[in-house]
Amino acid sequence: MTPEDLRYTEDHEWARVSADGVVRVGITDHAQQQLGDVVLVELPTIGDTVAVGDACGTVESTKSVSEIYPPVVGEVVGINEALADEPELVNQEPYGGGWMFELRPVDPAQLDALLDAAAYDRLTDED
Questions:
Q1: Regarding beta strands 57-61 and 38-42, do their DSSP bridges make them parallel or antiparallel, or are they unpaired?
Q2: In percent, how much of the chain has pLDDT > 90?
Q3: From CA 42, how far away is CA 62, in angstroms rounded?
Q4: Count of helices and strands (H, E) across the chain
Q5: Which of 3, 6, 31, 48 could form a disulfide with 12 if both were Cys (CB 3.0 to 4.6 A apart)?
């Protein structure tokens, strides 16, 4: 079930906006299923400025390595340090404990261009 309260990218990342405007980012359940067992997650550094379309980290699984893309332009203000020791959280809780990083968007209006849950479901139905 795709959570309704999130926004999604065509690259299979999700974005959750908090009350203070910070955006938490992770990969979708669909993405983690395609990857298989996640064994390593490399995240951006706090303070980095990230841009849409530019990889800012990687997820390595037993099957492949995939890049992580930010859903909006912004400054990284937090990372999920638990993933260093427990990368399997990405598989177990992709929308919870498996989140990857947080950023403060330069232009919050960019979030409006992301997919809602219904549009993301249509995208993944085509896979």
A1: antiparallel
A2: 97
A3: 15
A4: 3, 9
A5: 31
Q: Which domains does the chain have, with CATH numbers?
A: 7-125 (2.40.50.100)
Distance CA 67, CA 11 (A): 9
Distance (Å, rounded) from C-alpha 62 to C-alpha 105? 32
Which amino acid is located at 47 in the chain? G
- The rounded distance, in Å, linking the Cα atoms of 19 and 84 is 27
Contact 70, 11 (CB under 8 A): no
pLDDT tens-place string over residues 55-83: 999 999 999 999 999 999 999 999 999 99
Query: In the numeric block, which tokens belong to residue 48?
Result: 């980095």
Phi first, then psi: what are they for 115, rounded to 5°?
-75, 145
> How far apart, in whole angstroms, are the C-alpha atoms of residue 87 and residue 23?
21
What residues are paired with 65 via a beta bridge?
60
pTM of the model: 0.94
State the Cα–Cα distance between residues 38 and 101, nearest whole angstrom: 16
